[in-house]
Structure formats: C-alpha cells, structure tokens
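Fold sample X.
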Amino acid sequence: MTATLSAATLQDQLQDALRRHQNQVDYLEVRLEQSESTHLGFRGPRLDAVDRGLHLAGGIRACHRGGWSFVTFNGLGELDQRLGEAVAQARLVGRETTYLAEVPVVVDTVSAEIHTDPRSLSLSEKRELLDHYNQLLLQFDSRIQTTSVGYRERFATTYFVNSQGSCIVQERLDVSGSFGVVARGAGNLVRQGYESIHSRSDFDVLRNADARILSAAERAIRQLDAQSVRGGQYTVILDPYLTGVFIHEAFGHLSEADFVYENPRMQELLSLGKPVAIEALNVVDDATLPGLPGSLVYDDEGVAGRRKYLIKDGVLTERLHSRETAGKLQEPPTGNARALGATYPSIVRMTNTGIESGEHTFDQMLADIEEGVYAVRMLGGQTNGEMFTFAAAEGYMIRKGQLAEPVSDITLSGNVFQTLKDIEAIGNDAIYLNGGCGKGGQSPLPVSVGGPHLRIRNVVVGGR
C-alpha cells in the first residue's frame, strides 16, 4: 500500500516525522526511495536470471556534536521509531563540534526525461533482444567458450528532507546492457572481452548495437594471437577509455576530501594551488554533463551538482566534498555526497571525471615514437595512495611512428604525480564512457570516466 502513495503525501509524512525529532540534534535528514527494477542475464546459452522488483526503503542520518548515526527503515510505519533511534545514537557518540558547510535551502522536483520507457515494453521483447546479442557473441568464433550477458533497468524516485528546510524529489532512470566473453586458445590461454551500453533516458540505445557488442568478442580473439609485451620503460599512448580510468582511479580518488583530511601526507601532497602536472593538463569532475551515469542535479545531501576543475593548467585547484568535509576544510561544497541507494549513507564520490581535450591528433602523437606501446581499455588494477598498477585489456606495439603487432599482458605502473608531469601530449578527441565505482562497500555507483588519447613518457610496462 505504501508504494502507491502520492509524492505529495510521502513528502508530507517525511517532513512531519522529521519535525518531531529535529530539535534534539544539530542536523537530521531522511531519504526515501521508491524503485522498480528488472534484470535479465545469460550465462553461456542459458538464461540464468530473471528478476523484477518493487522496493520502498530509506535511510536516516543524524549528527550531534560531530557524531554521526545512520539508521535504515523499510516502511513509513516504522519511520518515527527509526528517527528516534538515529537521534539517540548521534547524541550518544557526539563529543566534539558539528561541521557542515552552509548551502542554500532547496525545494524542488527533478523529473526524468524519458524517450522510450523500458517499463512500457514487455519482458519477452527484452529477453529476445538480449538473446540475439548473446547468440551473436557465442557464434562469433569457435574459440569463444562462454558469455556473460546482462540487461538491467531501474527507475527510482528519491525523496530527501532535512532539518534545515530542504525538500527535494528526484527521478532517475538507468538502462544498461553488459556483454562479456571468455575466449580460450592454444595451451589453455584464456582472454576476455567486455562491452557495456548505458542510457539515462532511452531503451532504444540497446537496439541495433550488433557491431558495438561484437567488438567485445573481437578484442578477446585478437588477444589470443598476441604475444606478451617485453617488460621495460616505454613511451605509452593510452586510449580515451584507459585515460579516463587512469585519472578516475589514480587521481580522482585522491581528490575525495574524506581521504585528504584524514591523511596528513595527502594534505601535504595535495595542497591547493600546488602545481601537480604539466601546464596543458585540465581535469574536471562535472555532474552537469547531460545524460551520463554520474550526472545529477542535486547530490544525496541536497547540494547542487556542478562542474569542478580538480586540476586547472596543471595546478591543483579544487577537491570533492560532502558538506562535512567542506566544513572541516573550510572549502566550498561541491555536490559530491553520493550513496548507492537510500539505505546507504552518502559519502564523498566522483560523478563524471575526465581530462579535457588537448591539441594533438592521434597520428601526431604516434609520429615520432621509435618504440612504444599503445594501451587500450582496462582489464583490472589497483591503487595504493599515489602509486598505481593497471592491466590493459589489449595493446599494440608502436614502431617508427606506426601501430605494429598486437601485444598482451600489459601492466602499467607508476606514481601518479610523476606520471602527470611525464605527459607529453594530450589528444583532441576526449569522450566519456560509462562505468561503476566502488568505495566504502558501495558498488557499483554509476559514474563516467573520460578523456582523450594521452601520451606519457617513461612508463614502466610489465609483461608476462
């Protein structure tokens, strides 16, 4: 019955319940999310997942004297009790001072812009389309051993109210397809290929996508015939996807202010106004780009999303904040408090993070490289502070200014701050691609990673 309540009724109930408790703590907020979702999945030739769900759940955050509590609830009938628990817990742990950056009070409704609504289509139509793509991958080459193909749609309406007077309703649609293959060659050599498609507004993005989806199988098969790269230091060109993943993983997470204010070494390395890269480098986190997975009008604290230059002309200019981290570091709030859903607390997260385009064409970047490596997409990786290691999904040797033979087992390692200073050329072809980010047990949070081709000298490349 709760799931059929009108938006106005839900808002009134949330505000009424919050008013009864808000004067007992420094800050109090409630987020409630109504959602409907569908998931289909193939594993090899078998349809192994068909899930549909309707959910209503929420979370409460309370802060008193710097002490935070977070309590979830599964229905409005228990909201008042859960509010009381959140207040009591915050008062129990609070011992210091509450720091929250000042932000405008917002009363607003944000509707999703939808073209072809997946909810208007039958489950059988979605299954047939997914089965078509799965069969394309399975039949592409006899060396394709299995597939992992999935479809997800989710439409959610989130209600946010806080003790400072904000009341925001936001709708969000996500439609996505994921297409993975495993290929096996001589000597039981195994390679993988992956492609994904995402839209915030339109099921039709998944139609007529044969060529794009088959690219996952093509990459896996190419890698079966590639020789392992010889380890050493090379001039490396990253493709736009790997550029975006690199800047997200190796630098973007360092820009999240909850990491900075808890880490004295990072405060020293990441002091605002410090040159950290070549002058031509500009890095942004932009929540306002239309239609991307990380785009938002308001974050999960009711703060407006905006475009931020993390690095401008090579200089560190801004970092990403929640209201608390902005208050503690006395910096402007940025609208980067995000949660995986209403039953998770908001933490500092990226939105759409990337490197802006430069002036060089791909051919110009290749031209004077005697021997180098072209690294394409990412297979996996890890970061540890300023150190990173990434495994490229595929790659090619560069010889005398030309792409040469395909190579495999490419790992790229280094120190992010040195690498940002070793950039030699920035391409003029920046694009954004969809991704999922993990942090604090919340994964995959929808984000985008972006950038152009990037040429970097003295990169440590490891092979098998």
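Fold sample Y, listed below.
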Amino acid sequence: MRVTSIQMEIKDRHKEENLEAALNLLDQAPSSDLVLLPELWPCGYFSFHRYREDSEPIDGPTVSALREKASAMGTHILMGSLVLREDDDLFNAALLLGPAGGIMAQYRKIHLFGYQSEERKLLTAGKKPTVVDLPWGKAGITTCYDLRFPELYRLMVDQGVSIFLVPSAWPLARLDSWRLFNRARAHENLSYLFSCNCAGTSDGKTFAGHSMIVDPSGEVLAEGGEDACYVSADIDQQRVQDVRKEFSALNDRVF
C-alpha cells in the first residue's frame, strides 16, 4: 500500500480557486492507493467569517468534483474536511471517497476548538467516531484537535482499527505538540497514523505543515516541512499484527 498526504498551501482566495488548486494537486500526486487532503481547505480554517457562506450540502460542487476525481484516478481519497451544511446546522465533516467515486464514510469532528477560535461557536459537534473497512484494514477518521483526546483513539482500536486518518489545520505556534501527538497516538495504539496538515496561512494565521506518516512503533516513516509538499510512504499492513504480537501492550490493559 502506498499513501500520500497532500500538504496543501492554504491561501485567502475564493472557494472555487481552492477547489481548482486541490484538483490540480491530485493530478500531480504520486501514484497512491490512498491520498489525503487537509482540514477545511476550501475556505481556510481561520476564516470563520466564511464558514456559512462557503458551506455546502453533501451533494454540493466540492464533494461532487472530488468524487469524480476519485473515480477518474481509481484511488481512495480522504478529501480532508469542508463545512458541511445540513438544514440549519454546520459541521466540520471529513469524507472518505472510494475508487469508484462513492462516499465510503463521513466523520463529523467531535472535539471543536475553542481557544482563540470560533469553530465551537459556529459549528455543531459530531456525536460518534467513524470506523470504515479499507482493503488494508479498519481505519478510524479523526480531525486535528481530536489528537489531544486519546480516549477517542482507544475507543476505535477496540472496534478493530489499525489505521488512523487525520486531516488537520494545526498552527505553527504549536508545532511541537503536533509532532508529539502524531507519534503518541500511533505508538500507544500500535497503529499506523497518516496525517495531512495545512501549509500556508488563513486569515493571517500560519499553519505548521509537517504532515506525517507514522508506523505502529511510533517511527516516523515520512514527514513534510513547513511548505507545501507531498508526503508519501509505502506501508506494510502486516507490520501492525507483527508489532502487536511482539509487544502486547493492548492486551495488558487493566481497567
């Protein structure tokens, strides 16, 4: 299995321009079985004034265009997240698209950020974790701030997850925490973790980049810098079973 995170440069521009940029980046991405985009790339995470204006229903133009692209590429795409509109509610929703262009899973961000952020004021929190069957094992989808809540990841491991997918808009000011949590969530759960963070800026706030591919022992297989880039690695899913058999920490838990 080959996985690629597209560490997209976020710019304060129209949603349609960001969509065109994302489609071009997908066209240029290394051939992969799974491709990830970051959190709220259509409008930029910190552009809170755009959330409602740029929101879309699940059959809106952004999701429709990415579904067509997944089908054309014949690959799985975690299309990062967008502001999803359902009736009067807005959600930070990450969608996993299959190689035939179908929507395989939807995750609505559970932990909404409140510190120097309006996300919690503007959006409705999700209620449950999302676990989906992939050809390489069960995957759990989380988003950005979720990384600070290890109980969510352990809950998904108990549902059979061996891969975590994490679109994010993590700021540069907390880069050290980002790198720590990526490795910790993978290592403590003896699982792969694939993260895709933003580069660039949104409403004057700079993103950290450093998208990561981490193996079940906490080893970083690939990591981006602060600028836009592709982060790719070849994954051996048998590695999860081997690590869990050799070091049985998940079986040694005491409640």
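Sample Y note: The chain has a mean pLDDT of 97.
Also: Residues 2-250 form a domain with the Nitrilase/N-carbamoyl-D-aminoacid amidohydrolase fold (CATH 3.60.110.10).
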